[in-house]
Specification:
mainly alpha, 71% helix, globular
């Protein structure tokens, strides 16, 4: 399983996997999943690309992680940031955006 497949699985029922609908819980879950076996080809670089895409989309340049950036953009609301993460990640992966990368 790679990180895109993991995110698509989590998207269906995030509370079941991460405990509560919170962007920071999602980030912690994904990090823990990755660190369980860092040798596995998980395509984690896609999250760096996603972070750069978010910076461009929202015109924010700083040293925040993608979870912190979304928390800020969505009015410091953890649940709203989580829900929008899935929408934005799908948008990021869309064929139109793939052509731009």
């Amino acid at each position: 399983m790679n990180v895109i497949e993991l995110i698509n699985t989590l998207k269906q029922r995030p509370g079941m996997y991460i405990g509560k609908n919170n962007i920071f819980c999602l980030k912690s879950f994904i990090d823990g999943w990755y660190f369980r076996n860092m040798e596995e080809d998980t395509n984690m670089d896609i999250l760096i690309e996603f972070y750069l895409w978010l910076q461009n989309k929202f015109n924010i340049r700083d040293n925040r992680n993608w979870d912190e950036l979304l928390f800020l953009v969505f009015d410091k609301n953890e649940e709203k940031a989580l829900n929008n993460f899935f929408v934005l990640f799908d948008d990021f992966l869309s064929p139109a955006n793939n052509a731009e990368r």
